[in-house]
Amino acid sequence: MNKKYSIAIHGGAGTLVKGLMTPEKEEQYKAALNEALEKGYAVLENNGSAMEAIETAVIHLEDSPLFNAGKGSVFTNDGTHEMDAAIMDGKTLDAGAVSLITGIKNPISLARDIMEKTEHVFLAGEGAMRFAKSLGYTLETPEYFYDEHRYQQWQNIKDSDKFQLDHSMKREGKFGTVGAVACDKNGNIAAATSTGGMTNKRWGRVGDSPMIGSGTYANNKTCAVSCTGSGEYFIRGVVAYDVSCLMEYKGMTVEEAATEVINKRVLEIGGDGGLIAVDTEGNIAMPFNTEGMYRAFKTSEEKKEISIYKD
Ligand code: ASP
Fold first, then answer.
1. What band does 108 get if pLDDT is binned at 50, 70 and 90?
2. Which of 15, 76, 102, 177 is catalytic?
3. DSSP states of 272-291 as a string?
4. Ligand 1 atom having least distance to the Cα of 196
5. What are the tens digits of pLDDT across the range 158-172?
6. What structural domains and CATH numbers belong to the chain?
7. d(Cα 173, Cα 185) in Å, to the nearest integer?
8. What is the Rg, in whole angstroms, of the alpha carbon atoms belonging to the chain?
9. 296, 307 Cβ separation under 8 angstroms
10. Which atom from ligand 1 is nearest to the alpha carbon of 273?
11. Predicted confidence (pLDDT) per residue in 116-158, tens digit
């Protein structure tokens, strides 16, 4: 049995500048992160798998209106919510991903069902919805996903060609994607990411989050990674897999590899955002090249941190 186990979560990166958020709002975000973190950690503590822990944590974040995933998903150009999610098991390299779905309360669970109950990895749109219905998923009404703040964000840009990230004021948008990575007592690792994508997105736009290797990746040889940021750049940079490659081929530590990718390679191609990563020894890295990233981690060595800004 592994001595050290750990979990890390994120709730998106972006222009999160100290002082711009009210202390009450800040507390709300921290409380939501804390709850998701503790729920996921409890699974590990009770001998649960990394897979179970990350799904538990992400479900919790999806159920919060604060983050751009599940309930808090941003508005598309059509005024709907289209969600993407992916999950990957580092032990087996099994993966499940889903894109362009609407009305599903917990897209991460659907991604896991795709991984476990089909021969496929990635289902999208109408077909994915049919699959969900065949498993008995019920649909939430649009009211469930309605949030006044996100509605206003969309109203501000809906008549333009712009699309924007959650939590990003420079781009008048935000990255609020959520994700989790964990290492369990057996040294198995897993990663999960879930998102509503970008405000005002259209034409069936898909970001990096559900793409295995870009926004989400896990491999027991190296690390488990969940990304948040300007998806188009994270796709082109094959970011999550790049972290794994630097560890596998160059022998870097998870901290070195994650930092190199976010603070050098992603920046070089013009991308902004961050990621969380864990290796099979439970070591965690959480680099970001934006002003802030909602993030938290807890390890069996009693280390815990919940942060928003660059400190
Ligand atoms: N990476 C996500 C996307 O492009 C956005 C985010 O991280 O908030 O869909």
1. very high
2. 177
3. -EEEEEEETT--EE--BSSS
4. 9
5. 777 666 666 555 444
6. 6-309 (3.60.20.30)
7. 39
8. 17
9. yes
10. 7
11. 999 999 999 999 999 999 999 999 988 899 888 888 878 877 7
